[in-house]
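Entry 12.
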Amino acid sequence: MKKFLFSNVPHKIVSVLIALLLWQMVLILDDPERGPTMEIPIEYVDESPNLIRVHAPESISIEVRYLTQPVRILPADISVRVSLRNAQPGRETYRVEIIPSPRIRSDVRLIPETNDVLVEIDPAEEKQIRIDPRQNIRYTGLRSGIELAGASTDPDVVTVRGASRYVNQAVRAQITVDLSKMENAGVYETEVQILDIEGNPIPNTRVRVTPERIQFRPNLRAEPVRVLLLHPVVRGTPAPGYRVVSYDLIPAEIRGRGESALLAGLSTIETEPIDISGISEDRVFTVRYVLPEGVTRDPSSPETVQFRVRVVREANSDQ
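Predicted 3D structure (tokens):
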């Protein structure tokens, strides 16, 4: 027995070591060492030009596991693809394909959080929308004394393309311009924004507008000035036994500035209410006048005017 135990000792030692190594490998394969979890962007391929993704995950989590020696792996070493070949409108799941780079060893396992992703697809649609400079310009920075008499754009029609549900919502194309640094007949580039029926912007992640930027040419001119007659608004009556014999405004007119359309039908404006209740002698009131919205005072006109009223005692009143 003793002879058997001590015979071929080197071979027996090697056999034991091999057995231990094999057992260790079994343990590793059964429970590999966990590595980092990475968020990898999804690349969608084989998409039909007649279809558009409406809802789809942009990335997927992938867990790295090491069967043997850990190695440093970067997100750039992993690609994730989803093929949409033969896809149809609607909601459907599509297989996830994990593509490791050549530098990732064969003993590294890449475990995705899911093997399929849910994708919603719509038919692609496009339509043209005209830009009307009279209605579709939102402008700021108009300098005092200047009016925007008109404008033109080039082109005056844009194409909106996207998923049918979003293109159907698009009803208006709008541009926003800052006129503070623009000169008459100058040419300026500006971005086009697509709005829905309620005037809310549709994000460019949902629709694509072509061209994205257009040329804008403003027609700027000095605001017209118009002479406006002042009409006093008088309230109350003099003290008992007195009556008003005359009144006048000094000045009796002012000069107003505004858009041509606003001034065209405007000839008189009113003062703020003037209360003459209980007066028994001549008075002079300093009052303001009320300008309609969109009309401003020309600098040559005063901010206030004087209302002079003359009263006399009735002849048959008590002395």
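Annotation: The domain at 225-313 is CATH 2.170.120.40 (RNA Polymerase Alpha Subunit; Chain A, domain 2). The chain has four helices and 23 strands.
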